[in-house]
Every structure is written in structure tokens, then in C-alpha cells.
Amino acid sequence: MTANEILTLVIALASLIVAGASALFAKQSADASKRQLALVERKIGMVTDPAKMTEILPVWYVERMGNDNWGFGLLLASGELLGIERIRGVSDDGQWLEVELLDGSSGPKEVSCIPVTYAGLTNRTHGSVRVDQVQAAFELWTS
User: In terms of pTM, does the model score above 0.85?
Assistant: First the structure.
């Protein structure tokens, strides 16, 4: 075998290796695109009408907390107590609450020795809470 033939074989082998790597990267890219498409297709919507929220959450949960601006506490699985003014919406898959946080200007600093967490800024009061993290919901004060 001549030097030119060996060089041609080496170049052909290198070309096959590059082609194989390219095919592998193309497959990985196609798989990633399919996963992204699946995420987009199952995009979560928010239900903001309190009457429709009761189709996702229990009526007692939404009856007051979705209709009234008041002081409510959400006891979270972490042991924290979150002060909210109302439920603004519920994700259509029932996993998220969109809430209006209390700003802390009124209301208790703690309930049963548990500090109440309020919005950090008075002009940034929207928040999201996972429904499965809410252990209890109750009013923080009476009228």
C-alpha cells in the first residue's frame, strides 16, 4: 500500500468518525426539541374566576379567599405562615395558587408563635404557592 492510499484511508476513517458524531449530536438535538415541544404543549393556564376556581380547589378554600380582600394565613409544609390578601388564580392543573400577599402594614406579626411572612415590598405583592405545600388556610383576624 502506498503512502497516498494510507492517507486516503485515514481521511476516510476520520470522515466516518465525524459523520457518526454528527449523527449522534443531531439525534440529541432532535430529542431535546421534542422535549421542549412537549413542555410548550402542556403549558399551564391560570383560572382567575372564583366560580371556576371551585372546580379545581375545595369550595371552602375559594369561597372567601378568592372573592374577598382580607387577611388570610396559609400554613405551609415548611412550617412557615404566609400572609395573603386573596387568591388571584389557580393553575388549571390544580398545582399552583397565584396570590396577593399582604404587605405587613396591618395584621399580626405571629400566630401561635409562628412568624407571619408578608410581601417584602409594598408594591410587589403577587406571589405563587404550590397547592400541595399548603397544610392549612385560615383568617388572620376577625372583623
Answer: no
